[in-house]
Amino acid sequence: MQIYLDYSATTPTRPEAIAAMQGVLNQQWGNPSSLHEWGQRAATILEQARIQVAGLINAPSPESIVFTAGGTESNNLAIMGISQLYAIPQHIIISQVEHSAISEPARLLEMWGWEVTRLGVDSKGRVNLQDLIAALQDNTVLVSVIYGQSEIGTVQPIQELAKITKQHGVLFHTDAVQAAGRLPIDVEKLPVDLLSLSSHKIYGPQGAGALYVRPGVELVPLLSGGGQEMGLRSGTQAVPAIAGFGIAAALATLELRSETDRLIKLRDRLFSNLADIPGLIPTGDLEKRLPHHVSFCLEQADGKKVSGKAVVRQMNLAGIGISAGSACHSGKLSPSPILLAMGYPESAALGGVRLTLGRETTEADVDWVAMVFKQVLQRLIS
Predict the structure, then answer these.
(1) Residues 62-94: tens digit of each pLDDT
(2) Confidence (pLDDT) at 362
(3) β partners of residue 86
(4) Catalytic choice (328, 364, 371, 381)
(5) 27-56 in b/e burial notation, b at 16+ Cβ within 10 A?
(6) Alpha-carbon dihedral 242, 243, 245, 251, rounded to 10 degrees
(7) Active site residue 297
(8) What integer is the mean pLDDT of 120-132?
(9) Angle 239-273/37-56 helices, nearest 10 degrees?
């Protein structure tokens, strides 16, 4: 038996999305910038997908959706696209639990003389609203806080954080890659200016993503060339991947309510099944949490025999795919920076594990995984 529980890393492409991609590759393969019939057929496919992705977050206009190659590019376009508006370094604010697609561009800006404030988080991984207020400065031009944290599952108070920045005339971006398609997002009500999306997190193909840009927000493009995507992302669009992204977004919109409820029940069942394991500590906010996300850390991880990576390897041998939070550099494990930011000791931060559920996950899967997980830990710890 093989069970995949790493849906936060990527999701299997839906058959409907694959069919749409095959149709484009076989019949609608023109360049959407071309004026002839072949090009215009491709352009129609492109704009249909833009409407579908806009619908996923209730964007006010399809033209507010800029297609990219994925969440990482969307995040970089948001951070660097704002920063390039300024000839003199300014100030930006991020959190200590951002994806590296935010933290690394911020580090690069810092090297160029920008001031970067990294908001701390509590033991559940949540940003404090008062910390944001205290961090704002006269030269703050952007705040970026992740919507749902991929390693620990915590959902941030995006509505409240964005409202604060709006009151101070500061732009707000959120990386919603893990939240979109799993939680309802309405940018007509959510006062965000920029929001990142990724196709392969919602059962679309890899290689496609989008950045929502609120009308009136100005960005400097990262790529120069043909001026595609409203001038913000030059290069011939990957129409097959974008078509698949659009279908996946449309289906996610239709299924959101029922699938979210189902995932929450499975998530809570898995947490309950693993609750009696000594030394296994749930991480993140157990209530304000992504619906598909289960995560723990091992209290006494040693970074060798007992570590998050060791658990992943043993679970893989049993036919179960999960992931770990610690990173491996040159053969040596380093503790998860997310868990360290939350106040966990280094030993526990070496023992982070994540199990994320999806469309194909069943109650029987959850029960089987819990049983195997317990056996794996007993072997590692004994």
Answers:
(1) 999 999 999 999 999 999 999 999 999 999 999
(2) 98
(3) none
(4) 328
(5) ebebbbeeeeeeeebbbebbebbbebbbbb
(6) 160
(7) no
(8) 98
(9) 20
Q: Which residues make beta-bridge pairs with 94? A: 118, 144
CATH architecture designation of domain 15-252: 3-Layer(aba) Sandwich (3.40)
Q: How far is CA 293 from the centre of its chain?
A: 12
**Beta carbons within 8 Å of 184's beta carbon, 6+ residues apart:** 256, 257, 260
Distance of CA 366 to the CA centre of its chain: 23
Same fold, 3-9+256-375 and 15-252: no
Model pLDDT, residue 326 = 53
Residue type at 13?
Answer: T
Residue 330's pLDDT band (boundaries 50, 70, 90)? very low
Task: Locate the domains of the chain by residue range.
Answer: 3-9+256-375, 15-252
* Contact call for residues 97 and 261 (beta carbons, < 8 A): no
pLDDT digits (tens, 9 = 90+) for 97-115: 999 999 999 999 999 999 9
CA distance linking residue 5 with residue 311, whole number of Å: 13
pTM of the complete model beyond 0.85: yes
Q: In what order do the strands lie in the sheet with 293-298?
A: 280-282, 293-298, 352-356, 323-324
**Closest residue by Cα to residue 57 from 240, 233, 218, 179:** 179
CATH superfamily membership of 3-9+256-375:
Aspartate Aminotransferase, domain 1 (3.90.1150.10)
Work out the percent of the chain whose per-residue pLDDT is above 90: 91
Tokens encoding 107: 């580090």
| Termini Cα distance of the chain | 26
